[in-house]
Amino acid sequence: MTPASQPRTLQTIGEFGLIRELQKHCQTLHSDVIQGIGDDAALLRTSHKEALIASTDLAIEGVHFDLAFESFKDVGHRLAVANISDIAAMGGTPKYLLLALAIPPSYAVSDLRALYQGFKKPCQAHDISLVGGDTSSSKSGLFLCFTILGHVPPKQALTRQSAKVGDKVYVTGTLGDSKAGLQILQRQAKQQTSHADQPYERFLKKRHLRPTPRLAIGQHLSKDRLAHAAIDVSDGLSGDILHLCQASQVGVELWASHLPISRQCQTYTANHCPNPIDFALAGGEDYELLFTIPSRNQGKVSDLSRVLKTKMTCIGEIKPKSFGLRLKLKGGTSRNISRQSYDHFSKKRSKF
Amino acid sequence: MTPASQPRTLQTIGEFGLIRELQKHCQTLHSDVIQGIGDDAALLRTSHKEALIASTDLAIEGVHFDLAFESFKDVGHRLAVANISDIAAMGGTPKYLLLALAIPPSYAVSDLRALYQGFKKPCQAHDISLVGGDTSSSKSGLFLCFTILGHVPPKQALTRQSAKVGDKVYVTGTLGDSKAGLQILQRQAKQQTSHADQPYERFLKKRHLRPTPRLAIGQHLSKDRLAHAAIDVSDGLSGDILHLCQASQVGVELWASHLPISRQCQTYTANHCPNPIDFALAGGEDYELLFTIPSRNQGKVSDLSRVLKTKMTCIGEIKPKSFGLRLKLKGGTSRNISRQSYDHFSKKRSKF
Lengths: 352, 352
Known about the structure:
By secondary structure, chain A is an alpha+beta fold. Helix content of chain A is 36%, strand content 24%. Chain A contains ten helices and 14 strands.
């Protein structure tokens, strides 16, 4: 068989090719679909006052999590937060969870119990009820699929596609902690070291294993109409700003010196990463919110940051599409922002 | 390690043990949850006029489907119908679909396209929009998770738990066709025979690969308030009548001579199954509706059967719980109905 006649595989078309395929085949949409494929979650009108938010997330043993260095409890917690974070990015309130799980029959009941306890904690904290699911045996590791349902008034819903030229770009919390925590966990599992963690290592591991969904912030941004557009940082800043800019048909200038990097992450990167900025750009699964606001709302965002006791940092400005996606470096030079997060067919998932 | 100190596994507690574990850990429910874990789908109040129906279904290569004798198109079609059928069993109208899929990167794009075409057909036929999902690579075969969302007026929703003593038990269509079709497909794949199918084989294979969701029937039963309780036959009659009786706290007498078995399935069982009744009881994935009605509605059900041109057969009667689940045989003897469908940790899924 000549190369030309070989069938195209998913490896050759990549994740965006796959999503384009899906979109091409599924264009018949109800008029009640406010937002279908292409955002953190689907937005579906149920009345003039209310829209349903629905999102589904996969987590596969050996792809999204590794039980060599994560407990079942950690996995449950992290996946629930990933799911809740999609509702946070739309400014909504989560309400119901459905859980499909395929489990090797040899797994211990106590491990499953730990998994439930893991996802139960963030669900209880946000008054989310498990209302259904599906179970199956699995021949190859644990496979989880969470579907979360929430609601938001349709006119208040935040999407990726409404960023305006001149908007300031903000991010909550700090970036790169989760990636640093993951690297520490992976290294420790490989080396089988048992030395006591340094405090910065403990902090970073916890940031990876027990992330916090930014629900209250999303809800305030949406209710008070402070933000134009929002997305959660699941894929990494470089990937998620790209999604937001593509959906909004705009460009962006991010300011390297403004990227919020925790003291602990700085300590880590000082030893393990020649360029902490690249690390902050590429680090996924922080579940922080990335949002754009008109300049006039900057004071209100500062107030909100104080009230909610959560850091919110202005990291750049939305530019016309022709500007592209650029990172302004110290000294006034700049470079293109390239997506540094993994391709979806190597390691990571991709929402559509 | 002594046997007593060995950890309990899912194999030892089985599917119902797992579901009990889930229920135990997830009892905090919103007041808007009309039906949570324990029916074909969750029923969630969105207003006094409308309830949301949500259901999630897994399909795993090597567990729920086998690409040795099913095409990608078949798999897509069958899973979509399984999902739609959960909405039919509640008397609802399906509206939206979310699809999570994990795919080995080496799979051909054309195969994925066939999968989409497979699920697109029943979705288009019932005006269901794909509104979102999640994609990932998989290290071990195709893994699909469909979530379907629909709606129904809350007071009209059919559940498993409202069967009343004295109700007549009905089933749509015929039973066991899908199981017979599956066995033919499996045998042909094993023998690698290429002889032309007999007409009865073609019929039975199609019943397995391209089932029909009984949406219109469910909607009529619900809208016209004809039925007390309903469930779809996904697990097999013996398993599904057990679910219905347990949920309704009743017993049942089924009449062996009344079980609807197609001429084609009779031809098949004449050669391959010593007892066609057992075959009809155990055969899963027919996606027919099993429902109970007060006797006074029998005439209306006959009318509905004529209008919708779909066979609906009275196969028994609801009895008090103390009666148990019994099958009345020819000659007036009877025997207990035992669940003959697979255990969930060997081959099949189980909804919760």
